[in-house]
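Students often ask why we bother predicting the structure of a whole assembly rather than each chain alone. The short answer is interfaces. A chain on its own may look different once its partners are present, and contacts between molecules only exist in the joint model. In this exercise we take two input lines together and write out one structure for the complete complex. Read the inputs first and try to guess which parts will touch.
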Amino acid sequence: MLFYALKRLGVAVLVVVTVSVITFSLLHLSGDPAAAMAGENATQEDIEYVREHYGFDRPLIVQYMEWATSVLQGDLGESIYLKEMPVVEIIKVRAPVTMTLGACALSFALLLAIPLGVLAAIYPNTIIDRIALTIAVLGQAMPSFWFGLILMYTFSLGLGWLPSAGSATWKHYIMPSIALGYYAAPAIMRLTRAGMIEVMSSDYIRTARAKGLRPGIVIFKHALRNAIIPVVSLSAVQLGFMLGGSIVIESIFTLNGLGWLAWQSIQRSDLFVLQAIVLTVALFYIVLTFLADLLNAFLDPRIRVR
Amino acid sequence: MTSLTAEMLPSATEILEPSPGAILRRRVFGDWGVMIGGGVLLAIILMAIFAPLIAPHDPLDQDLYRKYIPPIWHDKGNWEFLLGTDRLGRDFLSRLIYGAQISLLIGFSAMLISGVIGTALGVAAGYFGGRVDMVITFLITCRLAMPVILVALAVVAIVGSSLSVVIIVLGLLIWDRFAVVMRSSTQQIRNLDYIAAAEASGCSTMRILLSEIMPNILNNLIVVATLEVAHAVLLEAALSFLGLGVQPPDPSWGLMISEGKGEMLFKPWMIVLPGGALFAMVLAVNMLGDGIRDVTAPENRN
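Now the answer. The structure tokens for the assembled complex follow.
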């Protein structure tokens, strides 16, 4: 187990390095980050000033090493727009909102998808299975921002039950979580269904049934426990995707999280903040999948040998 | 003697057994997903191709005197503008029809770019295995760690937005599923006898990859390609919705939803119509993809 964990950790570190290089080079894609930062109406002098101030005139490798060193020390640079505030501080304020949204959205997806997947697997090729499959197919085709707008139209503009914008109370999180989580539900449902169908036909389930155990115990204690293992890593992956995709939902519901911050930063050409957000979200994804790998190996010893 | 002739002649069941082509045809036409999804998609594609003939107006033609005409089912509807007009007086129906062009163009082009990258990587990883596989798996892991929408937005914001930038950025970002599926499909057939036979008879690696491996993983490739078109269409709509995809005045469905969201309360059709069009297209493409998978490889369902 320790060897496996160290191996995964090694890969994760390599991924972090690669991702940081890509994130770093994003800023230099346009050829001249100084011009991009100074804005459209900048004079040549302004651009020169920005270039020298942030050291864009040095070799790329030197810039990357310096950037990487300061990132390792917890320094992600300063925001250009927000009065040269440290980017780390801004992200610390905004990240919890996106985390909460991601956690709520994932919970919603799991609460919707796992029962549906189990039901569909217990009654395969019945009307229940058909309904579950229909929900999955519809969910995969529904653009999340459109679904969010329709939720907003129905529940805040129409019925007036829920607030349409902001992040002040738990009520503000209901619609964004549903809009964001619904997109992840189909994949989780299909995987639960496939896993359950496979497990339900295995020998130990037949034994459990032959022993005369109640169907509920067979399904939940024996079958679901094993069928759910792949769902663990899928959930981690989906949560990572949601953190990255939350920008669309946050901009609709003006939730004050990382996604909204990213959108604002794009509007303000605040590229250091944007770069930091991309790096933060990627790091979260890497940590999440690493933890999921470990959890998987802990749950299923066969994985450790591979 | 009689028994000998009976053995030589094909039995009645053998004669009645349908040919593989007939089985495939029957499966295709018996599959709801392929028929409905394919039908709707075909209709949308025809609509996009013949947009200049079908669209009643020029999608870019503005006239502020006729702005915000509601659709025909409203009291104030106008037969000249069946689905009404937007805030600049442009015909909504024509914009929807031309929007299909942009969605399909971006969806298919991004799919082609990502398909070439992903298939090359996936097949190479599956066929060569070992270090090559390790490196490519690592690349896939890195790609998955990059948040697609955020990176796409960042690139578009830095490089500047245009149709080709959106296509290239999406194409370079969404090759992961191609690579994953092609890799495992190749692994599955890598050690079969006909590959070994081709290797033993001295075929070049290129020939083995192109004429032994590719035809046998083609059905999986088509399924992923279909689903990736839908993925790219959704991403383009999200980018345009955020104002960093297709730029005004071009009619993109995502952009139309974004333009309509301010008027949503009193004019809900302004987001329902383009959103519904987007939903219908993605649903049709997904149904077609799922259907093709069920038809060509029923064992891969779920």
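Check your guess against this: Chain A touches chain B through 56 residues (CB under 8 Å).
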